[in-house]
């Protein structure tokens, strides 16, 4: 199968596939174009070309629908992410699926999908496979027409959440090409079709886990001779297996477990030579196992026949199945002895023969099973001693020999160091329950080296001595069961370290433990059964983790030491001992126990503990009312006297229980009432009864406990009226007012509800006026705020529902009492100053919305001495939030720069020309991507003031629309601050207005003329430079040209700045003169070709690309111009040769002047021969370097190389030497141009910032931005203000600018200075002057580097001009 990038035939399904995907919730309208263009790019679609075998006579090209909701598949599929976005809502399987004609596989895994497979599935004839794994929500029966799919090869329905119902359709046997059929864990019912044998190509048949299915074993399945896997477990099969089952010669897996099959196994079963797994677990098979089972089964790895009704011995032929790794025959009815041939199964790892009727000893040959990991022989009648060969089980981890008749010691097990579980208990009990004499005996010392043990069960034997203790600790041993033995102690000698550091279960009851026992050797012990021994004392530290301790039926005389330090103890059994003294409890913590009794009954046995100080019964399932009898008792003498005379007791003679109790915690129970707290003689300092079901506390003559800290929270039905508490309504400023002197405090002593029987010293409860906190209702609404009671004298914590009228008040904008609050209607208000009990009406010139805490001035008014005053001309309305979060209010403020305030500005601000008002795009959540509308931040109430910024080109901004306040740009301009040219317009610099693009031919002509003019200037300056290299008088034109170019760069840069910053010129004059001064003294250029020609290809970023291209253009100039000059030279030389003009020496155009200069008299100073110098020699000439002079040797003409003679360094070296001056001239022209363009990419202006699109949630209104745009200034590129500087969009151009400055601005200057410094002693050599003399000719000797100073001055001027223009105009 080959994956395709595009499938033309598949595109026929594009419309139907999109309709199905859209209806399912897998695709939205935005992806429709992807389906129409190429559905192979859709994330859950894979286009394929099938192999000839898979095509099987059908079309080869098609596509796979692959849907998986598994989070682990998020890296390869978008479906899990779509499912998360839908909040887990199920996908929908619609009928549009049946219009598909090229789908070859529908695969859905682990996702919810509603719908069902209908009979129309037969129309999708291209299907090769249907795979539905854990697709929850698909329901209904299998289509009756499923058998009409001519090319279907695989049908998988697995774990369909019991929604696939009905029988298996009979037509399924018509799928002549079907190779795999799996129907598992569904709600299918009925039998397997009888003619299943018609599926002759079937290789896999898995029908299992369908609890509603039943019926006979399909005998026709033996006709499916290609079957390799037959799994029919747990589907209610009845009857016997067919005799020709052995004809399935290719079968590798046969799983029939969990059915009701009966009869004997067919003898042909032994013919399945390729069988790897045979599982007949839990059926009703009878008879003996087939003769020869395993003889020809060299591939058999797993054999399971447990829980059947076989009879007879274990076949010795199983020893021939040498590949067996698991043999399970427990509860199979087998008898006889264990065959010694099993010792040949050297690969066996698991051997389970438990609960049979096997007898005799364990064959010594089993010791050869060196790979054995699990062995279970439990519940048989095996006898004898363990063979010594068992020591060869180096890998065994589980050994279960219990319920047999073994004898002897455990010495053969001493080397099983990998053993984790050892079960050898109950060897003294026969099957009829009577004790027998066959037992293991000796000690447990042979187990001391089995340090991998986790569970040890040796109960009901005759072991003596102590628990096993070796040289290594039992780090993993967690459970020991050694009951009914003859052990006399835990350990025989002291342990080095914690020998049983993981043990949590210890059962050694019915032994002979005597004297004192030390539990500290078991630091993590949780359950200990030590009953029915001879223990007299428990010493050492008792483990803190202990939960259950059984010491009943021993010889204890006192409680175990450390009884008070067992925080987790839940069960303690001390019955039938000799304990005579009980301790006096001071602290009792029984929290987190399921005591589940009436709370009064819980207290009754404890009230005799007179010394109890702390009681914690939290989370103990206590219920009911706490009645008075829980706290009152009678002296023992009265109880005895009343018992003797049969008289009743007078309540007045009762005494108080819990006299010293100071802390009581009954939280997290179900206590409904507390009768009184008056019974406590000493005041409680801590009471915690939170999270109960209290409805009443106290009685008419009692009150809440006088404690330092009492918690009654999370009792929703408890009210102050049911407690008779005293709540003072006298207003205070703060809780510290309650600390005043007694005279000033008298007003707080008495409450209105106090009666003559109340205690006049009662201190009332006073709400804290500074502790109010807003409460949020379940629906998220906030209507009121509540506080707590002052905690000056004591602290009482209750829910606000306890006394809502006293503890709660309505929020501003609401009216009512306590928590019964409603919103104020429109044009009314309430706040804390005027009170929130009722809402007051707003004045006529003010208004409010529903639920307002204050009134706001109406439009065009502000607050003054009168409630509201109108705004005047020259001012702007500023929206402010009212007090306490009220709705927008208006004030008037002086006009801001850039605004037209001839009339008061309230909604749409009018902006003066030359300014731009900040706008945003509003988009409602849920709308399409393009459904936005542009608004100003001020008009949309996103900002309290209009955000206005000057335009970099004032003439581009001509004001705003009077209706909607949106900006208006001049012709040809658009975008932010109107800085971008529209399509069809362009400009030379950002400081010039956009003009309409000229015709293409005109643009081409202008650029050609500029190119020719630049080439002529380069050629002329090159000729002057080469002449200056050999003639002192010729240096002047070259120097003047360089100085002129440098001054032009400086003047144009400063003029460019002056026209941009000054307002006296006007935009038109500045634009006109700006075009003239736009030249930088370098390469003349016209940028219209970039904006007008390239815009259709690169979009609005053409403005940036026209500057970025100067990173590569210098290389083109340095390569192309010398080549053009060379071409001209060759053409000129050929022309002269034909006309026989000149001599045999041919000089290039660029070097002709140099040769003529060499033919001048040998010494020239100011145009005159220097006779004095001529005396030095005929071949000496004096070269004047302004005020300095030096004598330079001159090569005689006869020694000069002919131009036709190639130099020794090669032709290219000669060509570079000839063009050296020209390249220096080109770099001189390129330097200011490249610098200016690279600096333009770095030029940024600061503007107020706001996100381009603001989303509005459904049902929500627009609110003020969290950050004012004027406080969030961000730089934007001056070339294109839509690009944020230093953003990801700006990053490529930033790197281009840095690279261009380094490569073409600084590198040539630094390289030139370095070259001149290196050759500073030979600068007057004619060869050096001819190549680079243009750089230093005309300067004094020591100032050869001065041209670099001029170059850096040009850079500085351009930097100042470029960056200064990016600052806002004043």
From TrEMBL:
<dbReference type="InterPro" id="IPR056047">
    <property type="entry name" value="CRMPA-like_DUF7630"/>
</dbReference>
<dbReference type="Pfam" id="PF24633">
    <property type="entry name" value="DUF7630"/>
</dbReference>
<feature type="transmembrane region" description="Helical">
    <location>
        <begin position="1000"/>
        <end position="1022"/>
    </location>
</feature>
<feature type="transmembrane region" description="Helical">
    <location>
        <begin position="1108"/>
        <end position="1128"/>
    </location>
</feature>
<keyword id="KW-0675">Receptor</keyword>
<protein>
    <recommendedName>
        <fullName>EGF-like domain-containing protein</fullName>
    </recommendedName>
</protein>
<keyword id="KW-0732">Signal</keyword>
<keyword id="KW-0472">Membrane</keyword>
<feature type="region of interest" description="Disordered">
    <location>
        <begin position="1152"/>
        <end position="1212"/>
    </location>
</feature>
<keyword id="KW-0812">Transmembrane</keyword>
<dbReference type="InterPro" id="IPR003591">
    <property type="entry name" value="Leu-rich_rpt_typical-subtyp"/>
</dbReference>
<dbReference type="InterPro" id="IPR000742">
    <property type="entry name" value="EGF"/>
</dbReference>
<feature type="transmembrane region" description="Helical">
    <location>
        <begin position="1246"/>
        <end position="1267"/>
    </location>
</feature>
<feature type="transmembrane region" description="Helical">
    <location>
        <begin position="1293"/>
        <end position="1317"/>
    </location>
</feature>
<dbReference type="InterPro" id="IPR032675">
    <property type="entry name" value="LRR_dom_sf"/>
</dbReference>
<keyword id="KW-1133">Transmembrane helix</keyword>
<keyword id="KW-0677">Repeat</keyword>
<dbReference type="Pfam" id="PF13855">
    <property type="entry name" value="LRR_8"/>
</dbReference>
<dbReference type="Pfam" id="PF00560">
    <property type="entry name" value="LRR_1"/>
</dbReference>
<keyword id="KW-0325">Glycoprotein</keyword>
<feature type="transmembrane region" description="Helical">
    <location>
        <begin position="1043"/>
        <end position="1059"/>
    </location>
</feature>
<feature type="domain" description="EGF-like">
    <location>
        <begin position="808"/>
        <end position="821"/>
    </location>
</feature>
<keyword id="KW-0433">Leucine-rich repeat</keyword>
<dbReference type="InterPro" id="IPR001611">
    <property type="entry name" value="Leu-rich_rpt"/>
</dbReference>
<dbReference type="GO" id="GO:0016020">
    <property type="term" value="C:membrane"/>
</dbReference>
């Amino acid at each position: 199968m080959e994956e395709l990038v595009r499938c033309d035939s598949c595109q026929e399904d594009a419309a139907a596939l999109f309709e199905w995907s859209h209806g399912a919730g897998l695709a939205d309208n935005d992806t429709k174009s992807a389906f129409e263009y190429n559905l192979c790019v859709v994330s859950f679609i894979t286009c394929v070309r099938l192999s000839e075998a898979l095509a099987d006579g059908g079309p080869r090209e098609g596509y796979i629908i692959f849907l998986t909701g598994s989070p682990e598949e998020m890296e390869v599929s978008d479906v899990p992410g779509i499912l998360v976005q839908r909040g887990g809502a199920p996908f929908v399987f619609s009928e549009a699926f049946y219009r598909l004609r090229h789908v070859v596989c529908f695969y859905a895994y682990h996702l919810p999908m509603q719908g069902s497979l209908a009979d129309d599935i037969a129309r999708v004839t291209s299907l090769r496979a249907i795979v539905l794994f854990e697709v929850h929500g698909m329901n209904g029966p299998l289509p009756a027409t499923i058998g009409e799919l001519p090319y279907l090869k695989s049908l998988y329905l697995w774990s369909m959440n019991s929604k696939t119902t009905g029988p298996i359709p009979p037509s399924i046997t018509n799928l002549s090409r079907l190779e795999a059929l799996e129907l598992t864990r569904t709600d299918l019912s009925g039998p397997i079709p009888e003619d299943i044998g018609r599926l002759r190509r079937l290789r896999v048949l898995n029908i299992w886990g369908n609890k509603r299915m039943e019926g006979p074993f399909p005998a026709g399945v033996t006709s499916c001779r290609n079957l390799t896997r037959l799994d029919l477990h747990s589907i209610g099969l009845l009857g016997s297996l067919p005799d020709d089952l052995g004809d399935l010669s290719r079968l590798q897996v046969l799983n029939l477990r969990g059915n009701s099959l009966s009869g004997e196994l067919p003898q042909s079963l032994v013919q399945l030579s390729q069988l790897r797994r045979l599982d007949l677990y839990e059926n009703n098979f009878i008879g003996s196992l087939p003769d020869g089972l395993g003889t020809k089964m060299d591939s058999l790895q797993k054999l399971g026949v447990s829980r059947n009704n076989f009879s007879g011995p274990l076949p010795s032929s199983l020893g021939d199945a040498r590949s067996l790794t698991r043999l399970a025959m427990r509860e199979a009815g087998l008898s006889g002895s264990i065959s010694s041939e099993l010792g040949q199964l050297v690969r066996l790892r698991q051997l389970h023969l438990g609960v049979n009727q096997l007898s005799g000893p364990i064959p010594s040959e089993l010791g050869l099973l060196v790979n054995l990991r699990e062995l279970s022989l439990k519940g048989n009648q095996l006898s004898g001693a363990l063979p010594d060969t068992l020591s060869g089980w180096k890998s065994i981890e589980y050994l279960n020999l219990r319920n047999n008749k073994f004898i002897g010691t455990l010495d053969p097990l001493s080397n099983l160091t990998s053993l984790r579980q050892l079960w050898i208990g109950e060897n003294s009990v026969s099957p009829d329950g009577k004790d027998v004499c066959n037992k293991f005996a000796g000690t447990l010392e042979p187990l001391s080296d089995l340090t991998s043990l986790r569970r040890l069960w040796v109960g009901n034997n005759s072991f003596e001595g102590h628990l096993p203790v070796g040289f290594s600790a039992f780090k993993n041993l967690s459970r020991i069961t050694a009951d009914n033995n003859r052990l006399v102690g835990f350990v025989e000698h002291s342990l080095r370290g914690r020998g049983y550091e993981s043990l949590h279960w210890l059962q050694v009851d019915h032994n002979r433990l005597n004297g004192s026992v030390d539990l500290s050797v078991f630091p993590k012990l949780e359950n200990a059964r030590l009953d029915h021994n001879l223990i007299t004392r428990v010493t050492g530290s008792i483990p803190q983790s202990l939960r259950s301790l059984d010491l009943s039926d021993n010889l204890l005389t006192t409680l175990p030491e450390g009884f008070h330090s067992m925080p987790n103890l839940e069960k303690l059994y001390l019955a039938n001992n000799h304990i005579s003294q009980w301790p006096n409890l001071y602290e009792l913590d029984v929290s987190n126990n399921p005591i589940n009794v009436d709370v009064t009954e819980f207290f009754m046995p404890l009230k005799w503990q007179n010394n109890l100080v702390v009681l914690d019964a939290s989370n103990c399932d206590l219920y009911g009312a706490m009645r008075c009898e829980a706290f009152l008792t009678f002296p023992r003498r009265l109880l005895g006297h009343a018992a003797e005379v049969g008289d009743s007791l007078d309540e007045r003679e009762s005494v108080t229980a819990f006299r010293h109790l100071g802390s009581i915690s009954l939280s997290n129970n179900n206590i409904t009432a507390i009768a009184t707290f008056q019974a406590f003689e000493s005041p409680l300092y801590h009471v915690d009864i939170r999270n109960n079901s209290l409805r009443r506390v106290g009685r008419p003559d009692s009150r809440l406990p006088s404690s330092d800290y009492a918690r009654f929270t999370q009792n929703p039905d408890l009210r102050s009226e049911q407690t008779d508490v005293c709540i003072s309504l006298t207003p205070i400023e703060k809780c510290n007012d309650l600390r005043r002197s007694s005279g000033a405090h008298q007003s707080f002593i008495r409450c209105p509800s106090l009666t003559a029987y109340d205690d006049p010293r009662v201190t009332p409860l006073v709400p804290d006026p500074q502790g109010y906190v807003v409460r949020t209702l379940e629906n998220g609404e906030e209507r009121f705020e509540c506080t707590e009671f002052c905690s000056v004298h004591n602290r009482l914590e209750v829910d606000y529902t306890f006394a809502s009228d006293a503890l709660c008040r309505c929020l501003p904008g609401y009216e009512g009492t306590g928590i019964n609050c409603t919103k104020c209607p429109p044009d009314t208000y309430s706040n804390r100053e005027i009170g929130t009990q009722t809402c007051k009406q707003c004045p006529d010139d003010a208004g409010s919305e529903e639920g307002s805490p204050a009134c706001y001035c109406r439009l065009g008014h502000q607050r003054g001495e009168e409630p509201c005053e109108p705004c005047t001309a020259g001012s702007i309305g500023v929206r402010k939030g009212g007090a306490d979060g009220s709705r927008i209010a208006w004030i008037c403020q002086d006009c801001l720069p850039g605004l037209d305030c001839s009339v008061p500005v309230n909604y749409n601000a009018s902006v003066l020309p030359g300014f731009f008002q900040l706008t945003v795009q509003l988009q409602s959540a849920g709308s399409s991507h393009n459904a936005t509308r542009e608004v100003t931040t001020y008009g949309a109430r996103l900002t309290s003031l209009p955000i206005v910024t000057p335009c970099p080109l004032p003439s581009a901004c001509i004001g705003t629309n009077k209706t909607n306040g949106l900006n208006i740009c001049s012709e040809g301009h658009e975008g932010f601050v109107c800085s971008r040219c529209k399509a069809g317009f362009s400009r030379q610099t950002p400081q010039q207005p956009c003009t309409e693009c000229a015709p293409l031919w005109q643009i081409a002509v202008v650029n050609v003329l500029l190119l020719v003019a630049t080439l002529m200037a380069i050629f002329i300056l090159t000729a002057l430079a080469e002449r200056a290299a050999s003639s002192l008088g010729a240096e002047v034109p070259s120097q003047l040209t360089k100085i002129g170019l440098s001054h032009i760069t400086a003047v144009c840069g400063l003029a460019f700045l002056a026209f941009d910053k000054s307002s006296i010129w006007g935009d038109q004059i500045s634009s006109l003169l700006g075009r003239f001064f736009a030249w930088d003294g370098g390469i003349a250029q016209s940028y219209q070709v970039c904006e007008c020609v390239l815009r259709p290809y690169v979009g609005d970023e053409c403005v940036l690309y026209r500057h970025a291209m100067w990173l590569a253009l210098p290389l083109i100039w340095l390569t192309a111009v010398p080549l053009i000059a060379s071409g001209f030279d060759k053409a000129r030389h050929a022309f002269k040769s034909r006309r026989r003009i000149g001599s045999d020496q041919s000089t290039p155009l660029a070097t002709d002047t140099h040769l003529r200069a060499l033919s001048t008299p040998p010494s020239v100073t100011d145009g005159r021969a220097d006779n004095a110098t001529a005396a030095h020699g005929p071949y000496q000439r004096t070269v004047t370097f302004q005020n300095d002079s030096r004598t330079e040797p001159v090569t005689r003409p006869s020694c000069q190389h002919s131009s036709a003679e190639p130099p020794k360094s090669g032709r290219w070296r000669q060509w570079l030497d000839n063009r050296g001056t020209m390249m220096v001239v080109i770099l001189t022209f390129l330097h200011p141009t490249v610098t200016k363009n690279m600096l333009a990419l770095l030029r940024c202006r600061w503007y107020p910032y706001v996100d381009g699109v603001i989303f509005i949630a459904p049902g929500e209104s627009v609110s003020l931005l969290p950050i004012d745009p004027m406080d969030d200034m961000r730089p934007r590129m001056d070339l294109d203000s839509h690009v944020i500087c230093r953003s990801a969009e700006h990053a490529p151009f930033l790197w281009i600018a840095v690279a261009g400055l380094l490569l073409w601005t600084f590198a040539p200057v630094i390289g030139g200075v370095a070259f001149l410094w290196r050759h500073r002693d030979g600068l007057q050599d004619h060869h050096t002057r001819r190549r680079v003399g243009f750089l230093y000719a005309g300067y004094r000797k020591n100032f050869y580097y001065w041209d670099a100073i001029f170059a850096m001055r040009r850079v500085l001027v351009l930097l100042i001009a470029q960056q200064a223009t990016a600052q806002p105009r004043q």
